[in-house]
Design a protein that fits this description.
The protein is mainly alpha-helical. The chain contains two helices and no strands.
Length: 78
C-alpha cells in the first residue's frame, strides 16, 4: 500500500520533466511573472495628467434617483 505503482511513477516523471526539463523553464516562467508584477506596479503608479489651469474640471453627470410615491407603498400602515 505504501509503494508506488507504474502509473504513479510515470506521472511523477512527467511532472519532473515539465518542471526541471528543458532549458530553464522555471526561470523563464519566473521572469514572466516578474515582468507582469513590474507592469502592474507601473500601471498603478501612472496617474492621469493634472488638469491645465485654463480647463474647467471634469465632472461626472448623473440623473437624480426616481422619486417614490408614498401612496403606492404596500408596506405603509395607515
Amino acid at each position: 500500500m505504501g509503494s508506488f505503482s507504474l502509473p504513479h511513477l510515470l506521472l511523477l516523471g512527467v511532472v519532473v520533466l515539465i518542471l526541471f526539463g528543458g532549458k530553464g523553464k522555471i526561470s523563464e516562467i519566473m521572469g514572466d511573472v516578474a515582468k507582469g508584477i513590474k507592469s502592474f506596479k507601473k500601471g498603478l503608479s501612472d496617474e492621469e495628467a493634472p488638469a491645465k489651469p485654463g480647463e474647467p474640471p471634469r465632472t461626472i453627470e448623473h440623473q437624480a434617483p426616481a422619486t417614490v410615491d408614498a401612496s403606492r407603498d404596500a408596506n405603509k400602515v395607515g
